[in-house]
Amino acid sequence: MCGLRIYFLCLVVASCILFGVSHSTNESFAVLSDAPKQCSDSCLAALHPLYDQNAKSGQQEHSQEAIVKIIAESQAEQKEAMVKLIADSQTEQKELLNHYYLDVRELWNVLAGNLTSTASRLESTLQSMPVTVPPGFQKIGSRYFSIVYNEGKIWTDAEETCREKGGHLAAFRNEDEFEAVARIVEKYTVFWLGYHRNSEDEFVTVAGNEVSFMKWQSGEPNNFGGNQHCVVLFNSRMYDGKCDHAISFICQLDTV
């Protein structure tokens, strides 16, 4: 665009030098006798709009470059400000999370200390409270048991009687507990215990707990006749037997 203007400018200058404007009434063209003198004013007058246009064009180009530069600088500043804002926000969030973590941890330590202290006080209180044991129960090992000799009952009735006393038919936690009870019961007497066979042919406790210990006689359980679903104690060993026999039973106390 700029090259075209220069070319046109040169063309006008050359025309002014070579030709003059005729002063005749026919307005015809004539060759100037003194081109430099005769053309100076008229040529300058003719070229003045071109100078103005060229100057304006240069100013516009300069203005466009300035605007582009300003926009680029503004975008760079905005980008830098945004990056700084994000970094500051992330730092602030990290600090808040650290404070929150420390507060939660401190609160947890306080609660844990309070729970431990409360548990210790409750344990001390329970140990200092007098134990109310229902009639017929005695402490054997770490728990209370009732050995019932004179009330022969079938297995379901024996369990119901133990429930009325505050417990269940006895199921032993370990061998020491089993041996402690087996040593004090009368020999050659059969007692119902708190185990029975379920629908999956597995023995479970009547209280719904998993079986933790059983001490079977050799060859037991054999489920003779297909109807021996309850467990008895006889001479320090366990046997499976029919649940409809009326025999003695042993209760365990669950409320103490």
Automatic annotation (TrEMBL):
- Domain named C-type lectin: which ranges? 140-252
Q: Can you say what this protein is called?
A: C-type lectin domain-containing protein
Q: Does the keyword Signal apply?
A: yes
Q: In which organism is this protein found?
A: Drosophila yakuba (Fruit fly)
Q: Name one Pfam family in it.
A: Lectin_C
The record ties this protein, via InterPro entries, to:
C-type_lectin-like (IPR001304), C-type_lectin-like/link_sf (IPR016186), C-type_lectin/snaclec_domain (IPR050111), CTDL_fold (IPR016187)
The entry's keywords: Signal
Position of the signal peptide: 1-24
CDD domains, per database record: CLECT (cd00037)
